[in-house]
From TrEMBL:
It comes from Mycolicibacterium confluentis. GO terms for biological process: peptide transport. One of its GO terms (cellular component) is cell envelope. Signal peptide: none annotated. It comes from the Bacteria. This is Putative oligopeptide ABC transporter, solute-binding protein. PANTHER family: PERIPLASMIC BINDING COMPONENT OF ABC TRANSPORTER, PERIPLASMIC OLIGOPEPTIDE-BINDING PROTEIN-RELATED. InterPro entries: Peptide/Ni-bd (IPR030678), SBP_5 (IPR039424), SBP_5_dom (IPR000914). Its main location: other. One of its GO terms (molecular function) is peptide transmembrane transporter activity. It holds the Pfam family SBP_bac_5. Belongs to the bacterial solute-binding protein 5 family.
Amino acid sequence: MDPAGSYDNGSFQVMNQVYGFLMNFVPGTGELKTDLAEHCEFSAPTVYTCVLKPNLKFANGNELTSSDVKFSFDRENVINDPNGPQSLLANLAHIATPDPLTVAFTLKLPNDQTFPQVLATNAGPVVDEEVFPPDGLLDDNAIAEAEPFAGPFTMTTHRKNELIGLKANTEYRGLLGEPKTQLVGLKYYANSDNLKLDIANRAIDVAWRSLSPTDIEGLRRNPNLVVHEGPGGELRYIGFNMVTMPGSTPEQKLAVRQAVASSINREALSRDVYKGTYSPAYSVVPESIAGANEAFKDIYGEKPDVAKARQYLERAGLPIPVRLNLQYNPDHYGVSSSEEYAAIKGQLDATGLFDVNLQSTEWVTYTKERVADAYPLYQLGWFPDFPDADNYLTPFFLPDNFVGNHFEDDEITKLITEEATEADPGRRTAMIGRIQDLMASSHISTLPLLTGKQIAVAGKDIDGVLLDKSFKFQFTPLRKVS
């Protein structure tokens, strides 16, 4: 629960309910607006200034001032935890607090179009400097006991990975308003089978994430339930290690990637594996995000083209079949990963152009070996920090990116830097389109496969399940109706 040491969806789901943010997204529309802040704006090209609402307090009664805000962001960079969100603050130079209500963020690059959204992400929770240490992480139980929460809920119960009890925080004065339900219980499940049983039998009111496509298909037929769908922002990829993948030259390696791109049947993966809960993805930016195009469909086609794939390999002088060592993780990216990657192997092998050696690795080992050049081709997934195309570009394609696959290109770096700081929407959209086109035609460091819808299953008597483009599932609108 310490924001300085948490950069995962499960932790962020809880943090969204209990911590306050300077900026947040309106449930239902996903529109970015001020939360704890009265207003925020660029006061200079490299200075983003926020003024807090007056008389803010944490649930424990401590005052919330600009000093707490500065403390919150500074400690993330000071602690620099390997599991923390500080990479989102890469453009932050320093913070000033000219008075108790004013926070001035000085940025390294001017006109950062993403920074206001970053304030609503994993990097954005405002914590109580009277509770949290400045240079180390605080234990979850100590956090729960101290109630250093400025969000719409505070915590009544905390049993790690089992149960969290929430109650409405009477000190909250932010965008999300007073919760429609004063008490909310958050239960954790070790496997999706028990989650499915409990929602089917109405032992719980809402099931969120981790249900398999088969589970969802079955729950749709339950007359007491509603399956809610929201815009998809999650992407599933094949990642290519630009050094260890097959091919003796950069040209041969690109030909292999182009041939793979010409051989995958995304529609079959969507239909047969994911029962339509994931849709084909034809760009490194998913279709739900402004500025997305379908560059991979334009270049490689909507359906597999084995003749074109063979051409790529033969022109590059590659022996056929090409041996592909493909690695995946069976649990972290969902319970259907094994079926998905067996289908991918089957599709590639069926072309006669590839001989796929498919292997799986448990997550703890996978995360270490993936960035240590152990896997020439591998499964990759992404859930966005905020709903902007840049969040699908900067983490993947700038030097020293999180993918760790040795991709670097001067033109792509220049374009990404420019789009992130371009204030004109039309020009920025054109740059984002150009990046997508180049990644599909000339690079393919990652191959987008599928984009996932947001899915929540709730009882018919539950109102306020709002799944929007922000990808935040807020509890404040939830209520039971007769």
